[in-house]
# Entry
Amino acid sequence: MAHGPDIVAHLIVGSRPEPYLAAVLDSIEGVCAHAVVNDNSGTMPGPNDEILHGSRFARDDRLTIDRSAFTGFADARNACIDATPARFAGAWTLFVDADEVHGDELPRMGSLLSALPSDVDAVDGYSRHFVGSFAWWLSVERRLCFFRARDDRRWSGRIHEHLDPIGRRAVLPCVWSHYGHVVTPRMEWEKSRLYSSLGQAGFAPTDAELSVVDAAMAWGRMRPDVMRYRGEHPPAARPLIRELATRWAATFADVDALFARCSTVERLRRTLRRANYSRMIALRGIEAGARWGWTA
# Structure
């Protein structure tokens, strides 16, 4: 599908290089007419500038980079709203993180937008959360994907930000990949420390703890709930997956050794979790077909 004239992507990048950013941009460039990126790294050039300027968005003059200090995720997302070119007033906005890679579901979702009733404010789908490696996932969770731009629509919340006002929402049985927890153990705990510094209750590792963290320490508590992934990854992510399979081979081996250990009770638990997620998506597909004309 050619990119839609009325879809603008909003995403934010910070002070660390984003390993999945190139794949994210590749996965959405065919659907979005423009991308607005808030860079709150505080440096010039930013650590992700090479990827941003090398993207198809930049080559086609479809990229806006807004630079600001980081004062919270809501402020960064509101900066994207404010930096969106005026010609896209009233357009649909793609809400995407720098570690979410879409696949064939995104153009199908985008093609439905023009057929939705005018009182539908947002379109949700589902994000599959991978953990530790590309071979294991933890959950499939409902996630905002598209929303209509409106003058009074703003984000709030320094972390776990939310968008208001939002009226009627359509929910589609579409699942994409979230790789934010497919990192090294140190990167995983650095993220925990960042969120703690922003006010989230939880673990804030010290420098000494960061120096010794391993796979079991970072993800061991998730072992009873993870499930082995046997599906396909999005085409845009596959070259990077092959690269990281070499670069992070030791971490992936540790994760496999950790998660492959499974008692009979845990195996049953994983089976039931997998079946429950499959049932949820199947029921959502039936509902979306009846309400929004969605076809499998």
User: Anything to note?
Assistant: The longest helix spans residues 264-292. The two ends are 17 Å apart (CA to CA).
